[in-house]
Every structure is written in C-alpha cells, then in structure tokens.
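Morning run. Coffee first, then this:
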Amino acid sequence: MIVIVLTAMIEATGVYFALAEITGQNLSQKDLARGYRAEGLAAILSGIFNTFPYSTFSQNVAVIRLSGVKTKHPIYYAASLLLVLGLLPKFGALATIIPSAVLGGAPCWSRSLPLRFMGFRFSEKSI
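And here it is:
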C-alpha cells in the first residue's frame, strides 16, 4: 500500500505543477503541502473503508486545457444535479436498464476523445 500511495503522490505533484501552469498561478510549498495532505487523507480513508486509494487524475488537466474552464462552478452544478437525480428513484431505475455492452463501450469512446481533439483519425481498419 505504501508503494501505491507514493506513486499517487508523485503523480499528484505532476498534476499540481501542470494545473499551476495552465491557470497561470504560482505554486508554493504551502499549496503542495495542502495537496499532499488531501492525498494522505484520501489514502487513510481508503484504508478505513478497505478500498483502493484515491488519487488525482491527470486526465482532468487535459479537460481543463481543452475546455478552457478554470473555475469550480461546473463541478458544483454537476454534483448538485447528480445528488438530485440520485434522490429520484425513477432515474435510478432508468440507469439499471442500460445494457452492459453500452456501459462497457462508453469508456472506450470517451478515452478516444483526447486523440480525436489532437487530430488523430480512426479508420475502419484501425478498429
């Protein structure tokens, strides 16, 4: 578990520096310490709840660079919407009827989006 947490901390350092560069903010030692503290708390909680440790996602850096949105407002709106939808049983029932093949194919499609934005073209032969 220590190796996994150390790897997550190294990845988080890269994410912090990349986000600081994108947003044009100076990254101080205090900012790094707060980020590491949050990563440590996530690792402790994952140990308590017997799950895999959480870490920062470098994919979010690409989303911020591509979209140009540098505020937290979309996160708050999406979280509010998901909370409301989670409290309505009809939307939960709707989610259960989605075929597993569709759920399995969605990550494959969404992970190809950064390649498409960079100009990579898929052909029938490459699939």
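The radius of gyration is 18 Å. Good start to the day.
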